[in-house]
């Protein structure tokens, strides 16, 4: 490395070394010149030492400058190494800061995960409780609906019984009017009966009766209470009470009387003596 490349190195003056070198060369020349008649080893040694000392003095500035350059390079290398160490320290601090931030982020993520788990557990508990509440509410609603349905069925049965009994009385009233042999009264009662039947038909209650002379059918007919058990092929004599269907389902069979079954005589008169 030269001085131009390292302007910070002070310039060492070289002329004193050159002057000392010239002086030593002059001494060597003087010794050699004046010692010619008696030139011996001493004179030769003195000349060699003077020339050697001058040569050493002439190269000493360059040696010193080279040593300075080497020292400067070592200092610069040391400064560069120190700079790199400082850079490494900064990198180390950055790594430590990043590590601490990562640890904080990891702890935060753990806390978030724990919070999410707690929220999930709470939601599961709330969902289970809500499901149980819905189930209990549905059970209560079902029980209430069953109770209401039973009440409706009972009330339906009650008003059906009321309607049936009313129509029975109307039917009995019409039968009595026919037996009274008063056509006008029978006609008026018949119109009243038809109006009642039409009103009952609107709610699905239909009245029917058996016709006299019709064959007995156990699916729609029943004998009068306390009457004889109908035999096969029995003929209906009269309808005592009408039958009813409600919305297409049989509600009650028609009450009828049957013609007496002819019986054969078990004994015949014997021949006279």
What does this entry show, briefly?
The protein has 273 residues and is mainly α. It has helices at 15-34, 41-179, 183-202; strands at 205-208, 221-223, 236-241, 243-246, 249-252, 254-258.
Topology:
Blueprint: H1 15-34, H2 41-179, H3 183-202, E1 205-208, E2 221-223, E3 236-241, E4 243-246, E5 249-252, E6 254-258
Parallel strand pairs: 2-6
Antiparallel strand pairs: 1-4, 3-6, 4-5
Helix pairs in contact: 1-2, 2-3
Q: Beta fraction of the residues?
A: 5-15%
How many H/I helical runs? 3
Low-confidence residue ranges: 1-5, 264-273
CA-to-CA gap between the ends?
Answer: 186 Å
- Class by SSE composition: mainly alpha
Mean pLDDT: 80
What's the order of the H and E elements?
A: HHHEEEEEE
Largest sheet, described in full?
Answer: 3 strands, antiparallel
Provide a descriptive summary of the structure in words.
By secondary structure, the protein is mainly α. The protein contains three helices and six strands; from the N terminus they run H-H-H-E-E-E-E-E-E. Strands 1-4-5 form a three-stranded antiparallel β-sheet. The protein has a three-stranded mixed β-sheet with strand order 2-6-3. Strand 4 and strand 5 (249-252) form a beta hairpin. The longest helix has 139 residues, at 41-179.
